[in-house]
Specification:
Elements (H helix, E strand, L loop, with lengths): L2 H17 L6 E2 L1 H15 L6 H21 L7 E2 H8 L2 H4 L8 H10 L7 E2 H5 L9 H11 L6 E2 L1 H13 L1
Antiparallel strand pairs: 1-2, 3-4
Helix pairs in contact: 1-4, 2-3, 3-4, 3-6
């Protein structure tokens, strides 16, 4: 295995480990939805709200697609190997993937507390844990993304950030 292949698989392995909170070596839908549920709780956004429902539905769509790519035994649960296979498959990166970009868009909308169409530093830092970054790392990353130094990140910049995070 090349270094590039190892590096490409490291992020999905780390994602899997974060989702597998009980350490049983598998992730189911409940595990997969733990992070968005926790973020909504931390932000005080009701799951029944439009933003809450949109984020959960986008994550469910992504989960269903991950299962279609990686659930070799059809048990609706992904092992670490199945998850990594799904996340690194060409199908996952396909521009035609069902719901592609929806998790990012709904996450952006959830974080945009003042609904002004951009994220300020504080709004972005609320996503640090969701993106599995420390607040310090997220602050540095915000500064990197805010190329015009206006103290705000647009939806396009946020999408770029998430793409880079998941492909670096």
């Amino acid at each position: 295995m090349t270094d590039n292949t190892k590096n490409a698989q490291l992020a999905p392995v780390q994602e899997f480990q974060r989702m597998d909170a009980d350490g049983d070596g598998s992730v189911d839908l409940t595990d997969f939805l733990r992070a968005p549920h926790r973020l909504m709780t931390e932000l005080g956004v009701p799951e029944e709200s439009d933003k809450g429902r949109a984020l959960i539905e986008a994550n469910k769509t992504q989960w269903t697609f991950l299962l279609s790519l990686g659930d070799a035994d059809g048990d609706q649960v992904l092992t670490a190997d199945e998850y990594v296979a799904a996340r690194t498959s060409p199908g996952f990166r396909s521009k035609d993937r069902p719901g592609k970009g929806d998790v990012c868009r709904t996450l952006f909308d959830l974080l945009d507390r003042d609904d002004d169409g951009s994220l300020d530093r504080g709004e972005f830092l609320r996503a640090a844990d969701y993106l599995t970054m420390s607040v310090t790392e997220a602050g540095t990353y915000f500064d990197e993304l805010d190329t015009d130094s206006n103290g705000r990140i647009s939806p396009k910049e946020f999408l770029k950030a998430v793409k880079r995070f998941y492909t670096s």
